[in-house]
Structure formats: C-alpha cells, structure tokens
Amino acid sequence: MAGWRVWSALLALTLAGCASSAEECDPNKVNNLPTAMGCSVFGGFKANLAQARADLEQLRAQQIAEQQRANAAVQTSQQLVTNRDQWQRRSAQARRDLDRLQLEISGLQARNETERARQQAMQEALAAANARLQEISRSNPSGTAELRREIEALERDVEARRRAVEAYNQGPRVE
Questions:
Q1: Is 20 inside any structural domain?
Q2: Where does this protein have coiled-coil stretches (predicted)?
Q3: Is residue 135 in some structural domain?
Q4: C-alpha separations of 20 from 15, 32, 150 in Å
C-alpha cells in the first residue's frame, strides 16, 4: 500500500506539472510542493522567467519610445518659444519703425503746412505791394520806377519761394 501512495504522489506531481502553464508557475504565487515540482521539472519556472524578461523588454522599449516622444515634444516646445521670441522682437522693431515713420509723417505735414502758410503770406505781401504800387502810381507817377523795382524784386523773391514750395510739394506728398 505504501507503493500505491508513492505512485499516487508521483502521478499527482506529474499531472500537476503537465497542467502548469507559465502563468501558473510564478515563483511568487506557487504555494504547494507538487505544483512547484511540476513547474521545476517541466520548465514552467523557466517559461515564466522568459515571459517576465520579454515583458520587461517590452516595457523598456515602450519607455524608450515614450522618452523619445517626450524629448521631441520638449524640442518642439523650445522651438515654439524661440519662434515666439523672434516674432516678438520683430514685432517690437516693426512697431518702433512704424512710430518713427508716423513721427516723420507728422513732421512733414507740419512742415508742409508751414510752407503753405509762408507761401500764402508772400502772396498776400505781393498783393499788398501791388496795391501800394497802384496807389502810388496814381498819386505820384515819378516815384513809381523805384517802387516798381522794389516790387519786381519782391515778385522774383516770391516766385523763387513759390517754386521752392512747389518743388517741395512735388516730392513725396503726405496728407
């Protein structure tokens, strides 16, 4: 009868080992001797270890891939920050240029208005001189030659200034 028990135990161990898969042969979970012997004899522990190593390699590969994606995201983020900084600098320079041009335009407009006012004043002075000449020539025909020369000099001066204003106005007009 003792032989029967030995054979029964061996048969149980054999069947337990045959029925053991790599998942069932986890050394941390095997809690009975027949399953442990079956896992050891039939390679269940080795299969479990090989599966654990394969899982570990897969996790490492995933970790490397995730790290590469994270590195790419950081690089993209840094490039975006660099691009934003460059855009801000160019935008600030463009704004300074625009402000400078606006000041130049304002200055040209003021100068244009000043020149127009000067031209108007010269035309009024010429008209006043002509009126005075007309008055003097009616009242004193002999003194008109000297006055006429003075008026002609004024007219030449006014004409030269008028041409200068026109030449100025012919340039880039800003209104």
A1: no
A2: 42-171
A3: yes
A4: 9, 12, 130
